[in-house]
Amino acid sequence: MRLLASKLSGKVIQNVNSTYAGGGVAEILSRMLPLFSQLGVDARWSVIKGNEEFFQVTKKIHNALHGRGGPLSPQEISLFKETSQKNIEEINLSGDILFIHDPQPIALVERKKEIGKKWIWRCHVDVSQPIEPVWNFLEPWVTQYDASVFSAPAFSRPLPIRQFLISPSIDPLSDKNRELPQEMIEDVLSKYGVPNDKPLIVQISRFDYLKDPVGVITAFKLVKRSIDCRLVLAGGTATDDPESNTVLAEVKEKAGNDPDIHILLIPPGSDLEINALQRAATVVLQKSLKEGFGLTVSEALWKAKPVVASAVGGIPLQVKNKSTGLLSHGIEGTAFAIRQILTNPEYAKWLGENGREHVRHNFLITRHLKEYLLLFISLDHSEDVIYLS
Ligand code: UDP
Questions:
Q1: What pTM did the predictor assign?
Q2: DSSP one-letter code for 44
Q3: What is the mean pLDDT of residues 234-256?
């Protein structure tokens, strides 16, 4: 990696996304930037600005790229364009490589005509089956980039620009993932009022419809008919996600006053707490209806937890069914898979250990860093083989 980094000496890599906290993109950038710096690569991170209405539109775009919802109204289109124009005018772009994450800041590429430089669009969403008019709205910006990056082959689309396939990763040494003493795990459970008295089913996610927290509660209730257990649904809100309060209210209503269901609103930066909750889990769930990559799955697998997760987005890359976890379909299927794990502790342990090895080989940040360094280097080359020494 030092050899690769040396080839980028003197270059500034500027990342731009829409939030410093909340969600997978912010999670990865916050871990990656210090490592770039340690390698001597000048990588920076800026965030675009927008008001709540703008982020409502970008959330709609996000959902539409996942194939949910409908087209944008003329008002939404103008709002997106107006806020983008403001950002285009106001943002300080000092990078030699502009590394733009996801659709929210996509229009910044309009500055390319004026400032040149290399532009990469890093798409974290599965855009294989979008709501077409929304994709068509974004495409004229996408095609102005020098390159695009998708998390997996199945997520991408035919494009006239270069495409790179790079899956996300977790940092095993971060507070979110490092080993924790048992007392700390117990302390976090008691801080949140979760008794450690029966099997614990845990889903960590922003309160977002696509994470299906209401479906999680329904599945949990089915499991409870035959096995006594607890559910923890923990998550926060992201500054670029205005829907979360509505979802949280629905979740609370669905949970009612069942003392075995714990809805925890976790403030940003609670990495140790999330780590502890994942480690306290008997089963980790990720019952998403749509998913980008799903970092929470890698986080749980790295902790050798048996995972039950929906077969959507990047989850099947991480959960190989019956080998590194269980893939589930629908509410009944999720309840069935949870029961399988709770009634077979040996099998659960075996799945968890396999999961950890799978993450070790494929989804740690070192692999990700190396691939990003290669990507940056390749922008200055069009030949098939690049000789580095
Ligand atoms: N996360 C967090 N606080 C929360 C909920 C999630 O720090 O309240 C973290 C979670 O541990 C993971 C990331 O945010 O690192 C979520 O990434 P993922 O790819 O699972 O989903 P996204 O939110 O990007 O759709």
A1: 0.92
A2: E
A3: 88
